[in-house]
Design brief:
45% helix, globular, 357 residues, six-stranded mixed sheet, alpha/beta, two-stranded antiparallel sheet
């Protein structure tokens, strides 16, 4: 990616974010020039947090300091009780103190990962609400957005979360504007989907505060090119995911993914694609080695598992949300696919890789 393209991308990112937010002229924005340097980023980690987005958020700030030869940023790590916290990969992260050790002028970054509902502590929620009342910029990476939503801090804001957690997130917080983008910066709230998306968010921050030239230099220093726009999709394209580029097959699967709660019949899917049901069957057998009915069922079961692991919805409501009219039929299909019933699934902790990347 050329230097000029990097600059244009970063300028677009910094100027686009929060444009359509209400009262944007009267609210501080994450990315406004800091009142003093170094700007303090207080990273709050909860148990089973995902380490990649944490390092992706901190490293650009460190490199910006080195390349500018100025102390533009500083960061500290914190936990609810000041004790070390184990990440989802088992590494024990040391912290600089508990929540009371965070100064009032710090920007807050909540970092979560697996089993976020289990680690949404009431004390953390109460503290977040308190610091929000004084106008603190508060953000999250990965499933930390769930904690902010639980605290009511994303009401009226654009936000995002990892695509695997999106079904449960939208069921739990249907009123929120969850975009599914790589990251969102909306006034004094900022969220990123996880993985390396925190890199792009922090590069946008650096560009907004200290110029796109520095942000581009940081990106080149960490071999991160091109710098992604916040609105880009998290997942790879559907043809890449299924390993096939047949346009009719792609179109049919897109329709399936849009209609999981009320599944379309094979005859309707075939008619929409201009095929006969026999041609539809052959198409799926050739490219995906299964029937369209089976593929559709697997999509619905995968969504069901996400809802079971990420929400407190009843098994019956999960079944209905995934197109099963009978709980017994849902349970039978689920057990055949996953080797355990939906009720048993509720008692199994999420293993690494099941929720967050």
């Amino acid at each position: 990616m050329s230097f000029s393209t990097c600059v244009m991308t970063l300028v677009d990112n910094a100027s686009d974010l929060g444009k359509n937010s209400p009262n944007r002229s009267f609210r501080p924005r994450f990315g406004d020039p800091p009142k003093q340097l170094p700007q303090h980023m207080a990273v709050v980690v909860v148990p089973e947090f995902t380490m990649m987005p944490v390092t992706s958020a901190i490293e650009p700030l460190r490199i910006a300091n080195r390349m500018s030869e100025k102390a533009l940023y500083k960061w500290t790590m914190h936990s609810l009780d000041g004790q070390p916290v184990a990440a989802s990969n088992g590494i024990l992260a040391m912290v600089d103190g508990d929540l009371s050790a965070i100064p009032e002028d710090a920007t807050i970054l909540i970092c979560a990962g697996l089993n976020v509902q289990r680690h949404t502590d009431k004390r953390l929620i109460a503290w977040l609400r308190k610091v929000a009342r004084r106008g603190t910029s508060i953000g999250a990476v990965c499933t930390g957005a769930h904690i902010l939503a639980e605290a009511g801090l994303l009401d009226g804001y654009k936000c995002t979360i990892h695509w695997e957690n999106m079904p449960g997130f939208t069921e739990a917080f249907p009123e929120l504007d969850a975009t599914g983008g790589l990251f969102e910066i909306d006034r004094d709230r900022f969220t990123s989907a996880g993985g390396t998306t925190a890199l792009d968010m922090m590069l946008t921050l650096i560009a907004s505060q200290h110029g796109p030239e520095l942000a581009s230099a940081v990106a080149e220093g960490i071999l991160h090119s091109p710098i992604r726009h916040h609105s880009e999709h998290q997942r790879m394209s559907l043809p890449a995911r299924i390993g096939a580029r047949h346009p009719k097959l792609v179109g049919i699967i897109e329709e399936m993914e849009k209609n999981l709660e009320e599944p379309l019949s094979p005859s309707i899917l075939a008619k929409q694609a201009g095929l006969s049901t026999r041609q539809l069957e052959r198409l799926f057998r050739r490219y995906l080695d299964r029937s369209p009915k089976r593929y559709y069922l697997e999509l619905r079961l995968k969504k069901a598992r996400s809802l079971l692991l990420q929400t407190d919805m009843s098994v019956i409501n999960v079944a209905l949300a995934c197109g099963f009219s009978s709980p017994s039929h849902f349970s039978k299909c689920y057990r055949a696919f996953y080797g355990r019933t939906p009720y048993r699934e509720r008692g199994i902790p999420v293993i690494e890789g099941a929720e967050s990347a």
